[in-house]
Every structure is written in C-alpha cells, then in structure tokens.
Amino acid sequence: MSRKIGLCLLTLVMILSGCMDATPIEEISASLILGLDLDEEDNLLVYMSSPIFSKEAKDKEEVYEVKSYTLRHSREKFDARVIGLTSGSKTQIFLVGKRLLKKKDWFDYLDPFFRDPKNTVTARVVAVDGSVADVIFDKPTDKPRLSLYLTSLIDAAAKRNIVKKTTLQDFHRQMKDKGRTAWITQIKKKKRIELTGSALLAQSGQYKLTITPEENQLLNILEGKQKGDYSITIPVSMESASKGKPYISFSIPDLKVKKKVKFNRHFVYDINVNLQISISEQLFPFDVKKDYAKLEKSIANELENEFNRLIQKIQKAQIDPLGLGLYARAYTYQEWKKVQDDWGKNLAKSKINIHVKTKIKGLGTTNYQ
C-alpha cells in the first residue's frame, strides 16, 4: 500500500514540475515555416513565418528575413525581432530556394534539426523554383494561413502521387544513403503558388532536374508505391484511335513491381511492372469487351516508352531517385563496393530494361460504345 502511495506522489511531483516548466504559448514564436536561400552575393538568407496569438494584433502571422552565417545563428536575430522565444518544434514546411539548391553540400545547413531533439523532423522539405521570399511573404486573401495552405496542398497532391512528399527525416535518410539520391516537392510562385512537380537532387544535395506531376506518377510506379491514387492519361496507337482523339485515362487499383539486378561488365536491371487498370476515360471508338487484349498491349507499349524516356533523363543526370543502388548493394555487393562513392556515374552506364504488363479490370460504372 505504501509503495502505491509513493508512486502516486512521485507521479504528482512529475506532473507539477512539468507544469512549472511549461512556457505560455504567448511567449513562444513557433516557426511554422522556415526558409533558406541565397542573395545575389551568395549570403545565406533565413526566413521564418510564425503565428501571432495576441487578440490585439490585426495580422495573425509575422514573417521575417535575416542574413546569417548558419541556421542556428539566425535564431538569435529572430529572437531580437519576434514576439516570444523562437521554437522549431512545430515547423511544418521547410522551403529551400533554387539558388541555394544549386550549391553542393547545402544540406549541411540543416544540421541543427538533426542534432537538437527540441526541433521536429516531420516538416516537409520543399524546393522553391525562384526566391523563397516570393512564397513566404505571399498572403492571399482567399486562402488560409500559408503554413496550413501549403501543408494541405502538398499532402493532397502526394495522395494523387503527383509530387513527392519528403519530410526532414526522409530527406536525411536519402542523403546519407549511398544507394539512392533524394527527391522533394517543388513549388513556384506565379499568379499564385503552384506545385510544379518534384526536384531531383544529386548525392551532394545539388539540384539536377525537375520532373512534372505526370513523370512523378511514373517514378512512383517504378518505385512500387501502392499508396494513394493514380490517374494516368496517355495516347494509344490503334487504328480506331486515329478516327478520334487518341487518348485514354485510367486509374491503377493494384500494381506489383519486381526489380532484379546482375553484373556483366556493368550493372543490368530488369524491372517488371504489372498493373491492374480501370478505364475512366476513352476518347476514341473501340469495343474493349470484344478486343481488350489489343488495348492492354497498346497501353503497355506506351507506358514502356514513357518509363524509358524518364529513365534516360535520370541516367543522363547521374542520379538515382529509385534507389536502384540498394538492389546493387544487396545482390552484387562486391561490384557495388567498388563504385559506391560514385554511384550516379555508374548508374548512367547501367542497362535498365523495363517490361510492362497491363490487365483491364474495370470499364466504368456505365459502359457503352
């Protein structure tokens, strides 16, 4: 009985001490959005957007820009300007400007987030095609708070597989693994903020190329990602299609991707992609029920062509967002070990064979020809 009383008293003391150490929300400046960029003289610029909890304040968000040597050093400058103590525990979006992305080893600036346990690693890493200032100072009147807007925009697009959602933790894992390279969401400020696809990076973190939302779906398929929705629209080469608009749209309720690798003077990959598809749009006359095998073959051929074009872009850039190096390391370790420090260059020399099979599983709720 006395032991139970002792445990209860200890728990009460811990709760009370926690309450005593708590900081009122009014005294904290939670950086919901952080941004890194370079000015024209390559000086580091750090941006922060945080909510204001004061009832008297007309604006409910404060945004600041400071010139700094490092991300940690910028906190002192922010503390001299913002209301409350700066905190990185609630960061939702981490913006990186294109000018900084083109520099090698910019990833080192993120060190405080992986070293300090008070900082979060769940923030989404986002490349900005242009200046971070154009995005973080944008205050559209028809949208919610920028942090909520960007978070919802990215998460919804990731469910459609048209962008790559990458958290700081994911990004750290990708950057530290020699068997793959990183890819992150990319946005651009035009008349309004838009998702433009995903940015593919080298092992050093340096920007290499941008893939469109359509290419992002293809890359997710090759990766074998089953989560989320796919809505693919492609042209088909068929006699009946020449009489109308030669496009067909379909979803992918199920997919299976198998990758094999061997070494024969260079790495040789065989990627087998098996897709179950459900037709959602058909803009040419064709009786699918009567001759579905011909349509399946035509779709498979077009997908193979698009996959191959994407792979050629990746190899030319000497990057590996698919993580094909992971398979080389697992199944041909002795050969992989020799080239692991320059894997992108060796992947560019590899032979990658893609084989696609499609099976039509649905024609829509109201099917007519």
Mean pLDDT figure:
87
Number of strands: 14
SSE arrangement, N to C = HEEEEHEEHHEHHHEEEHEEEHHHHE
What is the overall silhouette? globular
User: Helix content range of the residues, please?
Assistant: 25-40%
- The SS-based structural class is alpha/beta
Question: What does this 3D model show about the protein?
Answer:
By secondary structure, the protein is α/β, with parallel strands linked by helices. 34% of the residues lie in helices and 30% in strands. The chain has 2 domains: 186 residues, no CATH class; 146 residues, 2-Layer Sandwich (GMP Synthetase, Chain A, domain 3), CATH 3.30.300. The chain is built from 12 helices and 14 strands. The strands form 3 sheets. It has an 8-stranded mixed beta sheet with strand order 4-3-2-6-7-8-9-10, sandwiched between helices. It has a 4-stranded mixed beta sheet with strand order 11-12-13-14, sandwiched between helices. Helix 10 crosses helix 11. The mean pLDDT is 87.
Observed structural traits:
about 375 residues, alpha/beta, GMP Synthetase, Chain A, domain 3, eight-stranded mixed beta sheet, four-stranded mixed beta sheet, 12 helices, globular
Write the topology of this structure.
Layout: H1 2-21, E1 28-30, E2 33-38, E3 44-51, E4 61-68, H2 71-79, E5 85-87, E6 93-97, H3 98-101, H4 111-115, E7 124-128, H5 132-136, H6 146-159, H7 168-176, E8 183-189, E9 193-201, E10 207-211, H8 213-223, E11 231-235, E12 247-263, E13 267-282, H9 292-317, H10 324-331, H11 333-339, H12 343-348, E14 351-362
Parallel strand pairs: 1-5, 2-6, 6-7, 7-8, 13-14
Antiparallel strand pairs: 2-3, 3-4, 8-9, 9-10, 11-12, 12-13
Helix pairs in contact: 10-11
